Amino acid sequence: MKKSLKLVTLFAIILAASCSQERMDQKAEETDERIEPVRTMTLDYQTVARSVEYTATLLAFEEIHMAPAAPGRIEKIYPEVGDRVKKGEMLVQMDRTQLHQAEIQLKTLEADFRRFDTLKKAGSIPQQQYDQLKSQIDVLKANVEFLRENTRLHAPFNGVISGRYYESGEVYSGAPSPLTAKAAVVSIVQIDRLKAVVPVSERFFPLIKIGMEADLNIDTYPGKTFKGHVFRIHPTIDPASRTFSVEVAINNQDNKLRPGMFSRVNFDLEEIEALLLPAIAVLKLQGSNERYIFIEENNRARRIGVIMGTRYNDDVEVISDELKPGQKVIVSGQARLLDGMAVEVVE
Hints:
It is a single chain. By secondary structure, the chain is of the alpha+beta class. It folds into three domains: about 35-50 and about 275-345, Beta Barrel (conserved putative lor/sdh protein from methanococcus maripaludis s2 fold); about 55-60 and about 190-270, Efflux pump adaptor protein, beta barrel domain (Elongation Factor Tu (Ef-tu), domain 3); about 70-185, CATH 2.40.50.100. Helix content is about 25%, strand content about 40%. It is elongated, with a radius of gyration of 41 Å. The model has no long low-confidence stretch (mean pLDDT about 85).
């Protein structure tokens, strides 16, 4: 009886172990074949404007460092730094001693010339002497005009005084100012228009045109876009950086912008056909820069490595030789997937 009981007990243990193993195998099988619910979208080409973005510093549209042609004493500097001046307004009056001397000398020679002219008509003086005096007067007139131009410095355009390097009564030496590295008494900038000199990659040289619009984003004004246009394209390529310079003009009538501000300049170059996906559909392999997506094929997830192109708001251009229009790209639930995992597309 005891032997029979032991056999029954042993049989029960073996049966229980067998059932437990069967349940474990079934559970493992169920785990391996777990079906993940996902959502997909159909991949297709979309027409978009390809754009490129570069950084640049805003500059005054024009900047002039005003100085006379020769050193001399400064009689008066009229504007202060920050003053707005109009075109033709006198900015600096230099010492006029040499100018007055030249003007007196010119008047004397002109009086002599009038007498010589009378004598010449009467045949009392030789032609050579007459011509020599006339040449002296022409040279002196040119000298007077030069001195007049360099004793009164006038604003060449409407602008703002950005620097004043001397005081009235000081002697202008002609030495470069440490602030500008240029010889100047005052500096004037035009800021109702600004410009940005943008280094653009040489591969875009055929696409940049005069008059092309550009969008500028300034960190000082987040969320606001300023409009500009290309007004000058430099004709040569820098062999070191493989870039060419593009000058973009920006209207600044409201004076919100200032020279020296950091900007991001965006050019829309051309319309192209691109494969776009929501940015959330693109995954990044942890610890690397590798990007990939999943597509659904025969109820299985297939992993495809991609290169990210230009971003367009919430969408991003994806580039891969394995991608074709009409494929079903998984855009929801992809974070839980592995290559080859079973999936079920849900609405």
